[in-house]
Amino acid sequence: MSTKPSKTLETFPNPQPGRDYTIRMRIPEFTCVCPKTGQPDFATLHLEYVPDRICVELKSLKLYLWSYRNEGAFHEAVSNRILDDLVKTTKPRFMRLTAEWYVRGGIYTTVIGSHHKKGWTAPPAVSLS
């Protein structure tokens, strides 16, 4: 295999650092392992962020998420760990991670975490109706 899972997140300079804009990603194939049973857990991750000076590089993000495939982790812990790692690496103005976990024991779990850079406020919503 030419690529392997990695915990390294790479970045590149924000091409428009003077503008607030939102990057949204839908990641439908996230997997890790239940720490109690060893069975696989599946989630769709929704990542949205307003970059500051740097953006996350997508291939490194894919390899980073792949690195969790054989790790045992509770939904709440792994969702927050991913958010923490992304915030630490990119230092965004705003970032939100929503992890929609598939059913386990008849229960669907959604974990939502967010980060706001100190002093940053979202621009007002615009309605075009």
Order of helices and strands: EEEEHHEE
Estimated share of beta-strand residues: 35-45%
Strand order of the largest sheet: 2-3-5-6
Question: Terminal Cα separation, in Å?
Answer: 51 Å
Mean pLDDT: 95
**Low-pLDDT residue spans:** none
Identify the overall geometry: globular
Radius of gyration in whole Å, from Cα? 16 Å
Strand tally: 6
Q: Give the helix level as a range of percent.
A: 10-25%
Question: Count of helical segments?
Answer: 2
Task: Tell me about the largest β-sheet.
Answer: 4 strands, antiparallel
Structural class estimated from helices and strands: alpha+beta
How would you describe this structure to a colleague?
The protein is of the alpha+beta class and 129 residues long. It is 19% helix and 38% strand. The strands form 2 sheets. Strands 2-3-5-6 form a 4-stranded antiparallel sheet, with helices on one face. It has a two-stranded antiparallel sheet with strand order 1-4. A hairpin with a 2-residue loop joins strand 5 and strand 6 (107-116). It starts with 10 loop residues before the first strand and ends in a 13-residue tail after the last strand.
